What we know:
The chain has helices at 9-12, 28-39, 92-96, 121-139, 151-162, 193-202, 209-213, 218-225, 228-232, 241-250, 255-263, 300-308, 326-329, 331-357, and strands at 47-52, 58-64, 75-78, 101-104, 144-149, 167-173, 287-292, 314-319. By secondary structure, it is α/β, with parallel strands linked by helices.
Amino acid sequence: CVCVCVCVCVCRWCWVPSWLPPWCPTSQKQLQAAEERMLHCIRAAFTRQFVPISDGNRLWTLTFCSDAVEDKTPVVLLHGFGCGVGFWAQNLDALSQHRPVFALDMLGFGQSTRPLFSTDPREAEDQFVESIEQWRAEVGLESVILLGHNLGGFLAVCYSMKHPHRVKHLILVEPWGLPEAQEMTEADRPIPAWIKALGAMFSPFNPLAGLRLVGPLGPALVQTLRPDFKRKFSSLFTDNTVSDYIYHLNVQSPSGETAFKTMTGSCGCAKRPLLPRMDQLHPAIPITIIYGSRSSIDSNSGSAVRQMRPASHVEVITTRGAGHYVYADQPEDFNHRVLLVCEEVDRSRNEPQEKKGS
Length: 358
């Protein structure tokens, strides 16, 4: 159920006290510079700003909105766990040519404020959701097409449950947190006792704590463990731009990371899964769910959503040749699919007016 930017068990089972970050060769300025390199290839004009929300928090935001597209329904991009706005580098130009696009670092991630989250899963979820709503109000968006990847997909659904009149369409890309935890019986798939013991021993630790533990070895560790990210962005970068960005994103104060752990059960699934709550989502909100054909995420949850909402629009798309990071693995296909959905939203929005005037 879970895909993290540095996928290694030992990283999930280590912890470093908050007073150790100086051991890591990072800073806010280095994160800013790493993001700048990720976005250097963007040709479209855009602005960047910290959008203030409550309690002195701020959400780092990229805004693409030319005069030619300002009348279209905007797309808001919510990144996944351990990611940030720079991960949309292969999508921003294509999407922004046709409509306004907003990409934000979610609360507790990237360059956004990293506050203390509640240790209660419901309250932590609410903190994320209300930060998105406060951001929307501050930016002045009436309604949006909400696109979320991984954790961003989970939060997009949670937001839509609470603020349905603000969401014209939900696009969920490899969403985390849909299914309930499946209890594995010993007969079906026995779990070794030593794995159970380690899981119990290390369950209090943050998912990416190991990356902070290794200090100066961290950048090389990311390059070694996740060389696939260099391939995903090979059309843009030939150096270590992507791995450097991943590193600086994930060795800052583990605020959103801690919240994610609070919301995650021992099996990696959500403590408050979405499928049992899907009846709380307004039936008028259309949903498009995009999976990668090579992903380890089970697309059966998408089919379950479609069965649970027979009177609603639910489309499940499988992108060939893509893994969990569909938007980076097959960016042209992904951009095309998303734009088709967006065009349909505007077409549906204009139909009543056209009929009225005819």
